[in-house]
């Protein structure tokens, strides 16, 4: 399991999903500049971001904005780490379910298009975005290992996959002497939904990080990333209630614990959640999907909170 970096901002990933769609280019550039100036390094995107917000029904806007930002700042590519995903871009703009998938040819084509939009010759972490049962996972594992072998990806990982499928892909790659998936990306937060219930808006059957994923990460030494860690603002924004799937007694106890720790630290609930995630064991790297400067600053400040063992115990015991 990767250790948390020494620089506080390096604990955080800046998610750029709505850059180029909901967030205009000047604001995107300003957020990226602020993040890097604060010491942040990881930028997360995908080739399908954000097809559901675009006029064409296809994605690529986020990667294109990142590419133009990097092109306008020569030398900055060496200071940032780029993570992108493939496999979920619609083939047919009128049918979001017509995904490009994870065949060998599709992977190579998709990453090639991503590199062109990003204006770089490699990404630091390439993800299989969603599982593709139409393709043998061994083919996917081999194709992604090839990306490392040809230098277009430094590492490879899986997002929104069941734990057993991740392990099958890893065992195959390792048995062939090739690079396996070394990272997981799922939705995870301090609050947990009811068992067997997907929160509204969670479109992936295996999108939620489970205890099996965490156990696999510990045993195999996998890095774990968490998207939607702030439940789209529900912790602190009264206009965004906690989703119904989280309506159970455990949530009441956990919100009370959050309030206690937040008051102790002079922080918001969301900041405590981010600090808790970044310092948990195994390490879970939170992805901030904020679209406003104040949201980014609050997240950066959260990475500097002194969440003592005593305060962490209050959160963990709830």
Total helical segments: 10
What is the first-to-last residue Cα distance? 25 Å
If you consult CATH, what is the topology? Answer: TIM Barrel
Give the CATH class. Alpha Beta
The strand line-up of the biggest sheet is 1-2-3-6-7-8-9-10
Radius of gyration: 19 Å
Strand-pairing-aware structural class: alpha/beta
| Strand segment tally | 10
CATH architecture grouping: Alpha-Beta Barrel
What's the domain count? 1
Order of helices and strands: EHEHEEEHEHEHEHEHHEHH
Low-confidence stretches: 1-5
Mean pLDDT: 95
**What percent of residues are in strands?**
5-15%
Largest sheet: 8 strands, parallel, barrel
Indicate the overall shape: globular
CATH superfamily: NADP-dependent oxidoreductase domain
Q: What proportion of the residues is helical, as a percent range?
A: 25-40%
Task: Outline the fold blueprint.
Layout: E1 13-15, H1 25-37, E2 42-44, H2 61-71, E3 81-86, E4 90-92, E5 95-99, H3 104-118, E6 125-128, H4 137-149, E7 156-159, H5 163-175, E8 183-187, H6 211-220, E9 223-227, H7 249-265, H8 269-279, E10 284-288, H9 293-302, H10 309-317
Parallel strand pairs: 1-2, 1-10, 2-3, 3-6, 6-7, 7-8, 8-9, 9-10
Antiparallel strand pairs: 4-5
């Amino acid at each position: 399991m990767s250790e948390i970096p020494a620089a506080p901002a390096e604990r955080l990933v800046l998610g750029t999903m709505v850059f180029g769609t909901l967030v205009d280019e000047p604001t995107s550039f300003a957020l990226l500049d602020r993040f890097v100036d604060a010491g942040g390094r990881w930028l997360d995107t995908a080739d399908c971001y954000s097809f559901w917000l675009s006029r064409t029904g296809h994605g690529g806007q986020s990667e294109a904005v990142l590419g133009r930002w990097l092109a306008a700042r020569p030398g900055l590519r060496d200071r940032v780490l780029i993570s992108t995903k493939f496999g979920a871009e619609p083939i047919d703009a009128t049918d979001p379910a017509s995904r490009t998938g994870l065949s060998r040819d599709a992977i190579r084509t998709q990453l090639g298009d991503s590199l062109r939009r990003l204006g770089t010759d490699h990404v630091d972490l390439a993800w299989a975005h969603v599982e593709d049962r139409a393709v043998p996972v061994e083919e996917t594992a081999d194709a992604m290992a090839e990306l490392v072998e040809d230098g277009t990806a430094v590492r490879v990982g899986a997002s929104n996959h069941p734990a057993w499928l991740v392990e099958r892909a890893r065992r195959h790659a390792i048995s062939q002497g090739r690079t396996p998936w070394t990272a997981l990306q799922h939705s995870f937060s301090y609050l947990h939904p009811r068992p067997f219930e997907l929160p509204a808006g969670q479109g992936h059957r295996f999108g939620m990080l489970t205890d099996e994923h965490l156990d696999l990460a510990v045993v195999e030494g996998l890095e774990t990333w968490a998207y939607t860690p702030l439940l789209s603002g529900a912790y602190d924004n009264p206009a965004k209630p906690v989703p119904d799937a989280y309506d159970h007694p455990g949530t009441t106890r956990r919100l009370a614990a959050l309030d206690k720790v937040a008051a102790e630290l002079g922080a918001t609930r969301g900041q405590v959640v981010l600090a808790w995630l970044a310092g948990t064991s195994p390490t879970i790297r939170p992805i901030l999907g904020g679209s406003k400067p104040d949201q980014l600053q609050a997240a950066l400040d959260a990475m500097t909170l002194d969440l003592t063992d005593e305060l962490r115990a209050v959160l963990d015991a709830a």
